[in-house]
Amino acid sequence: MYEELVRAENESNKEYFTRAAAYIKRLKDAGMEKQAKEAMRIVMEWLAPIMMQHIECEIVANDLDENTGVDYSIRVFDVISKDFYKYNCPDFMKEENKDKQFAIKSFIKMRTKYCIGDAIAHNLGLTNAEGKMLHKIRGTRKDLARKYQIEEDDVSVELIHEALNGEIPEDTIVELILREKGHASVEQIEESGGTAGYSEGIDIGQFHTELDEKTRSKLDQYFADITKMEVLIFMQDHKMLDDELNDMEIKEFVETDIFKELFAVDTSIRSRKNPIRTVENKRVKMNTVVCGLKEVIEEDDVNAEGLLTGYFYELLSRK
Hints:
- The protein has helices at residues 13-29, 33-61, 66-83, 104-111, 115-124, 128-148, 157-163, 170-180, 186-192, 213-222, 228-237, 243-246, 250-253, 257-265, 275-291, 307-317.
- It has 319 residues and is mainly α.
- The N and C termini lie far apart (81 Å).
- The chain has three domains: 3-117, no CATH class; 125-192, no CATH class; 213-317, no CATH class.
């Protein structure tokens, strides 16, 4: 029954898959769903390797982690399995494209363009709309990092907002980036009555300055490009300073002498017009940086409570 699905010698991908899709459509139109599924299984022997090439490229291009990558793969296979019969079929094409035939890779890309956003949303507990926005933010951040030859973590929220022509509000960008890095949402933070923990397994709760040289050396290397102002902002955000500074709103914090002093000499700032926005951007950056610390500092190296608190106080006191 499935002789029409035998691939001819030297038949191109476009020719074979167009013919196979038309055959499966005829089966579906005749109400032969079981046969259509079996036909799709046969076609998949040729189609799956092409789909996997597309999936692997997208996973790398979009920096998807393992779980999100698996989720994305499942979604791609699900969409194409359901929609393959529409490939190069005039019934499902815009009027201006009815006389055209597209490559199978183009069909896969167009049909699955929302799968990455949906996979991101599912794995981060976001809505699909939020997942699509975060996907757009990620792509924009990558483009800006390439354009300015900087690390992605150094791309400011303001730059992303401007590059998106204001399409996504700055507070939404901040929220989604924090969620991307594993932080609680703003609502969850407010409900819990405090700031979200930034890294499991590293205690920042108690001041302690006794660091062994091995650990100090690792920390110095890891935080080599971090400025004192960025350290101060992180410490204030995570209640590591004195009570008066910890309890300040950002608008009050940027008026303090210690902030103004460090702000004035910080060379990492692109614009000094809006200190409040600078604090918001730096919070995102520092939360991201510190989240990665557990990949550098092993559990055995954390030999004192409040390791990071003590180290940051030490950084602030250095000349």
